């Protein structure tokens, strides 16, 4: 059960990180840094 909870947490974290990373890229493009 511990392993299952850990897996769910990791997957959610990876998704949140991906979302934050995309938002950061968009902000940089809007500022003309990319």
- Helical residues, percent: over 70%
How is the biggest beta sheet arranged?
Answer: none
- Which stretches are low in confidence, meaning pLDDT under 50 for 5 or more residues running? none
Can you count the helices? 1
Question: Could you state the order of secondary-structure elements as H and E?
Answer: H
Gap from first CA to last CA: 44 Å
**Averaged pLDDT:** 80
Structural class: mainly alpha
Overall geometric form: rod-shaped
Beta-strand content: under 5%
Number of strands: 0
- What is the CA-atom radius of gyration, in angstroms? 15 Å
Protein name: Transposase
Organism: Flavobacterium degerlachei
Summarize the structure.
By secondary structure, the protein is mostly helical.
Task: Characterize the structure shown.
It is a single chain. This protein is mostly helical and 34 residues long. The chain is 85% helix and 0% strand. The chain has one helix and no strands. It starts with a helix and ends with a helix. The relative contact order is 0.11. The mean pLDDT is 80.
């Amino acid at each position: 059960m511990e392993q299952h909870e850990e897996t769910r947490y990791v997957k959610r974290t990876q998704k949140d990180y991906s979302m934050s990373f995309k938002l950061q890229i968009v902000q940089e493009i809007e500022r003309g840094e990319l």
